[in-house]
Design brief:
CATH topology: Rossmann fold
CATH architecture: 3-Layer(aba) Sandwich
Helix content: 25-40%
Structural class: alpha/beta
Number of domains: 1
CATH class: Alpha Beta
Strand content: 15-25%
Number of helices: 7
Amino acid sequence: MDNLKIVIMDVDGVLTDGKIILDANGIESKAFYVQDGTAITYLHRAGIKTAIISGRESKVVELRAKELSIEDVYLGIHKKLDAYEKILKKHNIKDNEICYIGDDLIDLPILRRVGFSVGVPGAPSEVKESVSYITDAPGGYGAVREVTEKILKSQGKWNAIISRYYS
């Protein structure tokens, strides 16, 4: 984990609890856990990039990603490895410098390649058996925050993050 340069996340089931809410007009809404958003900000402060690769198109996700300054956002991607390869090239990074957080079978091709692969408790057994780490917190309820703290503590960057709150 010491060499991780980017954290790539799925959305539904990782950044959200996996529920998709549609109103009578077909307007989608999602709930995002504020501490996961704060964690993404911490990653950026520590010099670690973030990215999203999701199988679904979503205006809500676009808005949340913009709010969190997530530069690389790939939505409606059914072959996630294609987007993953674009991220590798764009940032000139290697597989072992990447953390990927996923929750379903579509994430397996990436989870099997990255340096630090993460699943969530609600993931199917095939995902859980393929990852380096399974979060205690469920997707949409602090899984990204948990992984962020683990990475930043491993890299010795956590104290710099929290020190600003002690002064």
